[in-house]
Amino acid sequence: MLWLLDALERDPGRDQLIDMLGRRVRALPLGRVRGVLHGTWLGHPVHPMSIHLPIGSWMSAAVLDLKPGRSRQADLLVALGLAGAAPAALSGLVDWAELRREQQRVGLVHAWANTAAVGLYGASLVMRLSGKGAKGRALGYLGLTAVGVGGLLGGHLAYRQAAGANHAEEVPHVVRDGWHRVGGVDEFPVGEAVRCVVDDVPVLVVRESGGEVHALAERCSHLAGPLSEGTVADGCVRCPWHGSVFRLSDGWNVGGPATAPQPAFDTRVVDGRVEVRLPLHEVPEAPYGSDAFTETSVDGHRPSR
Length: 305
Fold this sequence. Notes:
This protein is α+β, with helices and mostly antiparallel strands and 305 residues long. The chain has helices spanning 2-10, 15-27, 33-38, 47-50, 52-64, 72-96, 101-129, 133-160, 171-174, and strands spanning 180-184, 193-198, 201-207, 213-217, 231-233, 236-238, 245-247, 253-255, 264-270, 273-277, 294-295. Keywords: 2Fe-2S, Iron, Iron-sulfur, Membrane, Metal-binding, Transmembrane, Transmembrane helix.
């Protein structure tokens, strides 16, 4: 199974179709609804939550179908699942359009499986309402099988390929507490994004015209895009990969598809040197390593003492 899934990731045969569909999904005039569908208001993707209604309804209908005779409750559950499938599919589509190519290849087949499930359950409902209960139940079980295949692929996307995961979550757990020197003030041109490294964690540093210095985790929480290669404007930085926008002052995600904010660092300037640290509330309860001061240069090499 793992070999088949890996082969699916590597197969470029559907890439032209993926490009075409991706452009059309990104061109949909959704406005602010796009952010709602991504889950920026929720702090994580909406799609995994939205699939519970159709899956739960169809699974319950399958249990009721085990009883002999027609079950109007099962008919109602099949219809309810079909109604819930539309918003679940739309939220999944807007997320899929902003994924990496390997993730999109798996996601496309995931969508096909779920589309087949919707078609089978739609036919099942027609059969049920036409009095052909046996055929309706059979189509329902076929639809549930397609849902299972789609769920397998969705699990691969989420847990093997990390689609929808917060790619900056580990930062507070791997950066030691205390202040870290990242370079002299002159090494940070005003308004430009500069990449530094603290405890092997890339950090984005931006100095504003008034002298204030901001520092965020440099890898985008959406899919680990390099924020240091993005655009800095209006107190925010835009990811060059998928356009997520983060506020420099606190890392808040003001624009999707990212649903999680960037870890932000406290900053200070001491003797012409910029220092950063994790905010005290983000320091792990049992930090590893010593409490000694750590000095880190812009290129990530700690100078000898």
